[in-house]
Amino acid sequence: MPMIYHETYIEAPIECVFDLARSIEVHIETVSNTNERAIAGTTSGLMELGDWVTWKATHLGVRQKLTSKITELERPYRFSDAMVKGAFHSFHHTHEFTESGSGTLMKDWFVYRAPFGVIGKLADKLFLERHMEKFLSTRAAELKRIAETQ
Q: How far apart are CA 29 and CA 142, in angstroms?
């Protein structure tokens, strides 16, 4: 299964970055290019252990829905979410936060499996992995901007 790793240093306290990363409103703001909206489950506020949300968004020109659930949460160091239903065969996204200097090091591990077997593996190599890397890095950069301007 492919894994995307991304790391961002944010000049803000760990508790602030942790809460921003699990905020529905901040998520929507950080991925505005996909027109992402929370349409079911937890649709506002901070995600907690066991919470789920259904997102409606446009990725790669395709309108789609995806439901994910918070499967692990250790405040303010780590939380994970996993796809329950959606376009991927599966995914697991771990967000980890470490105090570093006067700020926070945010690490993302996104492990996924594309749908459609061999065709999905080919799509992954041609464009899906690149798309997901850009999606995660753009979201992290926007989260950094928000955290550092508060």
A: 8
The answer to whether residue 29 sits within a structural domain is yes
Nearest to 54 by CA among 73, 40, 36: 40
CA distances from 67 to 35, 52, 147 (A): 16, 7, 26
Q: How many domains does the chain have?
A: 1
Report whether 46 contacts 23 (CB < 8 A).
yes
Amino acid code (one letter) for 150: Q
CATH of the domain at 58: 3.30.530.20
pLDDT digits (tens, 9 = 90+) for 18-65: 999 999 999 999 999 899 999 999 999 999 999 999 999 998 788 999
